[in-house]
Amino acid sequence: MSSSVYRLKTRLRDAAIVEPNEFGIPFVTHLYRKVNRFFKTAPFIFIVPASLFASLAVVYVFGLLAVKLVSLLQYGF
Question: Is the pLDDT of residue 1 over 60?
Fold first, then answer.
């Protein structure tokens, strides 16, 4: 019984170890870590204004076509 519990604890410890993300290019890895750190602490400070800006830009560029597409997607799903 104790050997099966030991194996289970070992497997759980191995599952909890996550390798750090490496992209192969040091600049990209550094940039990813900086951006990811920011999103972990305060994601809505950036995401909400960016999504509002993106939606207004889409409506400005495509006009009523964007509204019709969203309505079509809303009724389709």
Answer: no
